[in-house]
Amino acid sequence: MTNIATPTKLIELKDISKSFYLAGGLEVPVLHHINLDVFEGDMIAILGPSGSGKSTLMNIIGGLDIATHGEYHFAGQAVDKMSGNELAELRSTDISFIFQSFHLLPGKTVYQNVMLPLIYQRSFTGDYDEYVTHALKRASLEEAHWHKKPNQLSGGQRQRVAIARALVARPKLLLADEPTGNLDSKTGENIIDSLTYLNEKYGTTIVIVTHDESLTEVVHRVVNIKDGLINETAGKK
Ligand SMILES: Nc1ncnc2c1ncn2[C@@H]1O[C@H](COP(=O)(O)OP(=O)(O)O)[C@@H](O)[C@H]1O
Ligand SMILES: [Mg+2]
Question: What Gene3D superfamilies does UniProt report for this protein, alphabetically (predicted)?
Fold first, then answer.
């Protein structure tokens, strides 16, 4: 990236550790002393094998779970000190998720699925149709599919719906957990192309959690995670 001005820090993790506690109080340490900064407009991959702590880290970054130790700031706000309601507000306005299994509602059309985050966001005052249409176009889903149900679409098309739904509220951060995991390699590449396009054209900050090493080719930075410890390398882009 050729950004001469000082980039703005969107995510700042300082000495983050996370343990789970089993019945009987047995501690399962999962993340160890993680320090990570992500800047606005960044596109990074968190790369590591299954069980290394990727989803746990993503859930903390996304405000779905809280760390056992350490500090987390998002856009300058102390996430570790937020109440449940404040976390919910952060998730509904600033952070979106794309999961491996798309989590689309089967009884609703594509268009209705994409509108849902705006309906959940009680403070939304924009034009629903404008936001939904814009998101579907950004996710490159052809208009012919907009009024179909998810089960009438291919895996790749469903993933585009999931991307449109993640974008509709115009979040600062898009988090994708194994976005290519359930797709054949060609469809997976198309999805990564859409994410790259969003990052380049609209400056959306993107964090992809994956065990797929080919994604290191398309991101700016790679954060390697193993047994809950990270070290960082440059991406190839
Ligand atoms: N709720 C939980 N309770 C206990 N252990 C958990 C919980 N969630 C995850 N773990 C453990 O933490 C480790 C990392 O899991 P996860 O973050 O899902 O890894 P990844 O996404 O890299 O596959 C695993 O050993 C897993 O069993
Ligand atoms: Mg995982």
Answer: P-loop containing nucleotide triphosphate hydrolases
